[in-house]
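Render this sequence as a predicted structure.
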Amino acid sequence: MFLTKTIENNPSIIKAAFALHQNNLIRPDSYVIDLDVLLDNALKILRCAANSSIKLYFMLKQLGRNPYIAKKLMELGYEGAVTVDYKEAKVMMDNKIAIGNVGHLVQVPRGELEEIMLYRPQVMTVFSLEKIKAIDEICAKHGLKQDILLRVWDDGDKIYPAQEGGFYLPSLKMQVEQILKLKNVRIAGVTVFPAFLCDDENRDIEPTKNARTALKAVEILKFLNIKVKQINLPSQTCCANIKKLSLLGATHGEPGHGLSGTTPLHAKSNQPERPCVVYVSEVSHNHKNTSYCYGGGYYRRSNVENALVGTGLEDSQKVRVLPPAVDVIDYYFGLNGEQQIGQTVVMAFRFQAFVTRSDIVLVENCSSEKMKIVGIYDALGRVL
């Protein structure tokens, strides 16, 4: 999906990946990240956001909840992390990273609420009145006030399977009136997902109906005399849609794949952010005119198409990838034709490292002789 653009806009990361594997410095099933380009991308997005008065939480699940990257992003000036689930929140807490938003997309379980709340996240996204009551009780116990974001939805919104939930727009007013009876929580605003998606025909990032639902919810809150401090419209946050966030009235975005230059828009056009992540494997064996390279990093929405196979970028050949079916374990990726066993395989596709068993390799100075590995982590943010 991103191989052509990576070759075009950041060949250094591909050369580095070949060199690291050929010299046995990294294992197959590794995501290699060009840290310099990633931080340059992050700074570009941050500057765009500052010019449009948009605040940013960073999303790192796709990069394996990596705490080293999180610390670097905080140094640049990001507000904090948006932790997609309670396990990611714990990684950030263990590494003393500020949490901006927790609970979106995954609600904080009952047994984890108190510890996470005592860490003082800026906002907690909530899907139900029951969860808000549980938050209110913990606040009362510790003398706290907690800002919350209401996840809202309406008929006709685009909601991905296994991401359903939230406050239904037609009944929002009634439910908010119940929330206002609680003394220890404050409704800070609303959020939805996805608020933006790439329009393939126009080759641009456009707001979804979900975004309009969020704006309707804001009007309901204002009608009830609630001061709305945050309108959080995540998905595809990058330089290309920062102005659109601002024009819609949003206050916050949450760059994830924007940081690595790997939104769908980046696969189709050149953007200010450059791709900076590749997947590295190794040819294991051949069978019936198909070669197989080690798996472990497959993501079923990856849209992987091709790989480079060889010992370096210059001597590599582009080979069609035969990804594993979604109903099998990804022990291997198939590669069209027979390849030389032991050769390096480099791919660039849409990734979500936290759902894999891959290694995460952070590399600096990819384009110079001073290239070095900063650290190697597992897909859950732990140092290896």
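Summary. The mean pLDDT is 96. The chain has two domains: 3-33+274-378, 35-268.
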